[in-house]
Amino acid sequence: MTITVDYEVPDPGEKRTGRRGSHALRWWVLGVLGAAQLMIVLDATVMNIAMPSAQRDLGFSDSDRFWGFAGYALAFGSLLLLGGRLSDLFGRRNTFIIGLVGFAVASMVGSAATSFEMLVAARAGQGVFGALLAPATLSLLTVTFTEPAERAKAFGIFGAMPGTGGAIGLLLGGALTEWASWRWVMLVNLAFAAVILVGAVLLLEKHTSAERPELDIPGTAVVTVGLFGIVYGFAHAESTGWTDDVTLTFLLGGMALLAVFVWMETRVAYPLLPPRIVLDRMRGASYLAVFIMGIGLFAMYLFLTYYMQLTLGYSPITTGLAFLPIVAATVVSSTTTPLVLLPKVGPKIVASGGFLIAAAGMAWLTRIGVDTGYVTHILPALVLLGLGLGATMATVLQGATSGVRYKDTGVASAMINTSQQVGGSIGAALLSTLGAAAAGDYLSAHEPDPLTIAQSSIESYTTSFGWAAAIFSAGSILTAVLMPNTVPVPAAGEPAPAR
């Protein structure tokens, strides 16, 4: 299939000022954007370690703890498309800086929380400003690197952030919680943000345009409420079950609103999410791949963390260190695959093959037991997962922004984050439910003693890993069927000068 690319000439009203946006400084820009993405991803996992300490300090219940996680996820997941379109309309640099500063302020408020309500409000604030920051970050990367070879390298480095950030978040959360306080888990974002802000002000090109921005207000309202319903429904199902009235109301209502949103977007002059963004085969298949990765990654990080801490008795810091092999494997895979394999065999082969390698890693984890060793049962699986998901992520990040119009890069980038966030919400509910059912079935069939209880937890984990392996295998098949085997082309943006 031949991909037709509709490039847009950059708005003549957009002027370059000083050294901002200079092609010569593009690798410094990548450093700024990579640090911002790392901060966002870290925040999604670092609180997993810190939340029990925060609970003891602030005195809230186990049922309330849900909102410590959900406050961030709900705000972030429901506002991503709006954040992406705002970066297109009002400037990627402006949106990036506003999101960065707001995220830092919300983190500071959270670190000083004196009550549960204050903590939840701060987490929601992080989600709101994260929804501005995340799409602007990838959008800036998309329009900065348009020369194919450099684009592959830049997206490979950027693609390593989701996997490595999750593992580093566990290590950082464990270290700060154990050696300092849970409050430092949020306060450390201020150090990240300060460095990133300096780089953003010095390096990112300022947006100026004579055009009057148009925003699809009805579409924005419908999709925001719809995504909120979907994310909340799956989060609620994790604790109350799939037949709960509240769960069903939010899930069905959210799905209905998303269907209405799709219908609306075909009938407005300035859609929030232009249909051309997702109807392109390369981009559509890439969004689906990110969605599937979001489902499966939940099983690996959550259940493997439980296994190492609760069954093997690892400390939080030791658990974080145990995840470092996936960081190394992801970095190696995501930085070499786009340059070595992608031009030779094409994205279909790389992405679907990466899913198969990741599925093998998940299948390896189904062999764990009450007293199995790290070197024999965990380390090989982490290496396989890092190699597979690193290759797939680096490929689909390029595919998701392939040939996108200059003025659509923000919302195209937001679709990546939205796909991953919704996938993670589904993974949290689905795999937790399947794991809990497996543990309950095992307990009901055996005499209740300490060994039986320990083995029931193993049944829960291995069931989740098995389903995640099946999901990754399905991702491999779907990617092989849907994705064209044509190397993704650069998005329209600031072109590289002639060599």
Characterize the structure shown:
- This protein is an all-alpha fold and 499 residues long.
- It has a single domain (23-208, 272-482), classed as MFS general substrate transporter like domains (Growth Hormone, Chain: A).
- The protein has helices spanning 26-58, 62-90, 92-111, 116-144, 148-159, 161-179, 183-203, 217-240, 245-265, 275-279, 281-311, 316-322, 324-340, 342-345, 347-365, 374-377, 379-400, 409-444, 450-482.
- Helix 2 packs antiparallel against helix 18 (409-444) and helix 3 packs antiparallel against helix 7.
- The radius of gyration is 22 Å and the shape is globular.
- Residues 1-22 and 494-499 have low confidence and may be disordered.
Count of DSSP strands? 0
Written as H for each helix and E for each strand, in order along the chain, the element string is HHHHHHHHHHHHHHHHHHH
Mean pLDDT, nearest integer?
A: 85
Number of self-contained structural domains = 1
CATH architecture heading: Up-down Bundle
Mind telling me the CATH superfamily name?
A: MFS general substrate transporter like domains
How would you characterize the largest beta sheet? Answer: none
Strand content: under 5%
- pLDDT below 50 for ≥5 consecutive residues: which ranges? 1-22, 494-499
CATH fold-level topology: Growth Hormone, Chain: A
Structural class: mainly alpha
> Over all CA atoms, what is the radius of gyration?
22 Å
**Number of helices, where a helix is a run of at least 4 consecutive DSSP H or I residues:** 19
What's the CATH C level?
A: Mainly Alpha
